[in-house]
Write a structure and sequence with these properties.
The complex is a heterodimer of chains A (232) and B (100). In chain A, 71% of the residues lie in helices and 0% in strands. With 232 residues, chain A is mainly alpha-helical. Chain A is globular and about 55 Å long. By secondary structure, chain B is mainly α. Chain B has four helices and no strands. In chain B, helix 3 packs antiparallel against helix 4. The chains are: A mainly alpha (232), B mainly alpha (100). At the A-B interface, helix 1, helix 2, helix 3, helix 4 and helix 5 of A face helix 1, helix 2, helix 3 and helix 4 of B.
């Protein structure tokens, strides 16, 4: 069974991603304690990046939290996909398992045919990703706080570039592309009109375009969309 | 980020995970939302890319755009890993900024 090796490799890759989060959090003036609190307790990469990046440009807490929470909602779908596999666990192990319900663990667990392998893959990946993500964050913050001039290093472009990498898997299907195009256009229109950060909430309405495209497609297209974890 | 924001975000993110794991998404009232939730990351990430590249207060085109375009090309053509995209975008931005 390769899930052990794959889970650990995935964990290490996430560690690098965590280091990037740490650096960016530091350049956004987050203390080590705050960055660590996010990686330990929020523990869902895209939402952490979104919240910190919106807050960094002076966005209101409503904008920063709204965007991040809407992004975090997809973990609920992952939880749904894992609920049968993890049903056997009782409290408090279930509460621990819940925190590990993210893109990587879902992808690894649903890829295994045997239910026991699936559970083991979930835990191996979850623990590896959790440890590496947090160690990476700590290391990243320590590096980031020593950077004299983040913009001279182009780090202000690192946030949106990271989002580009995260967006790519969502563009494989037409509804995702429609939602992304509409979200981008809405955000662009909102920029000159709305206070900092608020265009993100406007962008969320881009899902309506995606739903429209889905409705026009065949009935099978909707079920096909379901359950495909992205990398973070 | 204030501590309050961090706590609210942590609680919210955890509740989504737990609600899913407990099968709450199978309730009839929730199933129609699953579709919307699946599409949210695409809309939000695109919005974040736009606001971070040419924002945040008004539309401003500067070195960031060059860096992000470089990152997007790298993602589209090479399926490059996250960290490579981030590093190349930052480098391109830094270089464009230094020479302009």
């Amino acid at each position: 069974m390769n899930y052990r090796r794959d889970g650990i490799v995935l964990g290490l890759a996430t560690g690098v991603f965590g280091a990037a989060f740490g650096v960016l959090a530091a350049t956004a003036q987050l203390s080590l304690a705050k960055a660590m609190a996010m990686s330990l307790f929020v523990f869902t990469g895209a939402s952490q990046f979104a919240a910190v990046s919106v807050a960094a440009v002076g966005g209101s807490p409503v904008s920063a939290l709204g965007g991040a929470l809407l992004l975090a909602a997809r973990n609920g779908i992952y939880g749904l996909a894992l609920s049968d596999r993890l049903r056997r666990y009782r409290w408090p192990l279930r509460l621990v398992a819940a925190q590990l319900v993210i893109d990587e663990t879902t992808a690894m667990a649903v890829a295994q045919h045997d239910p026991d392998d699936s559970r083991r893959a979930f835990w191996v990946t979850g623990v590896a990703v959790f440890l590496c993500w947090n160690v990476g964050t700590a290391a990243g913050v320590m590096v980031g706080t020593h950077l004299a001039d983040p913009s001279a290093l182009g780090l202000d472009a690192a946030f949106p570039a990271g989002f580009v990498a995260l967006l790519a898997p969502h563009l494989r299907r037409a509804p995702g592309r429609a939602a992304a195009a509409a979200g981008g256009i809405l955000a662009l229109c909102g920029l000159p009109l709305l206070p900092s950060g608020a265009p993100i909430l406007l962008a969320a309405l881009g899902v309506l375009a995606g739903v429209g495209v889905m409705r026009r497609g065949s009935g099978s297209a909707t079920t096909e969309m379901s359950m495909e974890p992205q990398s973070s | 980020m204030t501590w309050t924001s961090i706590i609210v975000l942590a609680a919210g993110a955890y509740l989504f995970k737990l609600a899913g794991l407990e099968g709450l998404g199978r309730l009839p009232v929730a199933t129609r939302w699953v579709r919307v939730i699946e599409l949210l990351p695409a809309a939000l990430l695109a919005g974040l890319i736009v606001t971070q590249t040419v924002g945040p207060h008004d539309v401003v085109v500067d070195a960031r755009l060059a860096g992000v375009i470089a990152g997007a090309l790298l993602t589209a053509t090479r399926r490059a890993p996250f960290i490579a995209v981030v590093v190349v975008s930052a480098l391109v931005t830094a270089v464009v900024r230094a020479v302009s």
